[in-house]
Amino acid sequence: MSKWSNMHERVESYLYTRRSVGYILRIEGKQLKQVASFADKRGHQGHITIDLAIAWAANSQRSCQIGYARRLERVRNLAKYCALFEPKTEIPPPHLFGPTRRRLTPYIYSDQEILQLLEAADDLPSKLGLRPATIRCLLGLLAATGLRVSEALRLTRNDVDLSQGLLVVRHTKFRKTRYVPLHPTVCEALRDYASFRDQRLPLAQDTEFFLLDDGCALGYWQARYAFRCIQSLLGWDTCASSRRPRLYDLRHHAESRIMPISQQRPSLSCVFPAAYDHRRVFKVGIIQLCLELGNGAKQEKRHAGEVVRTPRFHRAFV
How many folded domains does the chain comprise? Predict the structure, then answer.
């Protein structure tokens, strides 16, 4: 006899088990609850079936082929868990809709395109004028430091130490915290933005660094919508190329710059030991490969055993 009476109980049991060992499952949890509601509407009773999984995966009108594959993978994970308690559970075969992962060729922005983005951000509509300044500062920070969009949006005022020229990026990938050193021009731009923000919102209660006109923190979808508006202003949304610029690609703009080796300049691993990550050696190699494949940029070949240099911090605010 099954320990669950409906699909909602199966989903809650699965989410509770995985979250108890540290998984967040924000998106997956939301989608699996949609699976339970979908099963109720169809009048489905009993264990998970392949027909139910396929029907829900293909039910989205906004998804493409890879979207169907990812949705099916969510149900497949749930089915594998339920099969431990319900032997009759049908586990969907993998890759029924194709692969669930793909590596998109990054768009490497030129310096001129970065300047165009920053200038176009000033034309965004706003009540107090804070939204254009916030978006401009965010875009410049992403291009200068290589932060992920979510990492930049989660920055609080205490995380931005302009006197030391450091960012404290908390709870990043694999739940690590790291320090990110800043170029002096980046510190100057952040300081100007913070002063302008505090003038417009002197009584703001939110502790986040990037704020909007209403005093609330800038969210991911708001930043993405603003970027799309900028694309439209620049005419990039009608580009015939398959590699259209993305907000995330600003991260690659910073990673593709290489810091030259100097005898007088100490290594980042000595100055900021907590911030140095040996895996960045592989990161830079991947970015250079994408440069060669995507933009046809000529990269200097490295000999075996040569140390890969750390990306420098580009002057994106000039």
Answer: 2
- Find the domain containing 57 and state its range: 7-82
pLDDT of residue 174: 74
Q: Is residue 309 over pLDDT 70?
A: no
Mean pLDDT to the nearest integer, 86-94: 93
Tokens of 207: 């502790």
What tokens were used for 213? 């006109």
Burial of 5 (0-12, 13-18, 19+ CB in 10 A): exposed
CA distance linking residue 247 with residue 204, whole number of Å: 27
Stretch 102-117: mean pLDDT: 85
- CA distances (Å), 91 to each of 29, 46, 120, 186, 192, in order? 19, 14, 50, 51, 56
Q: Per the structure block, which two tokens stand in for 253?
A: 């703009």
In a domain? residue 150: yes
Are 122 and 221 found together in one domain? yes
How many angstroms separate the Cα of 214 from the Cα of each of 87, 158, 304? 53, 21, 54
d(CA 280, CA 285): 8
Cα separation, 155 vs 317, in Å, equals 19
The rounded distance, in Å, linking the Cα atoms of 231 and 294 is: 20
**Rounded mean pLDDT, 118-125:** 92
Instruction: Examine the domain organization and report whether 27 and 166 are in the same domain.
Output: no
Number of H helices, E strands in the chain: 12, 3
Q: pLDDT tens digits, residue range 192-232? A: 999 999 999 888 777 899 999 998 999 999 999 999 999 99
Shared domain for 131 and 224, answered yes or no, is yes
pLDDT tens digits, one per residue of 170-194: 888 777 889 999 989 999 999 999 9
Q: Tokens 């030991």 belong to which residue? A: 273
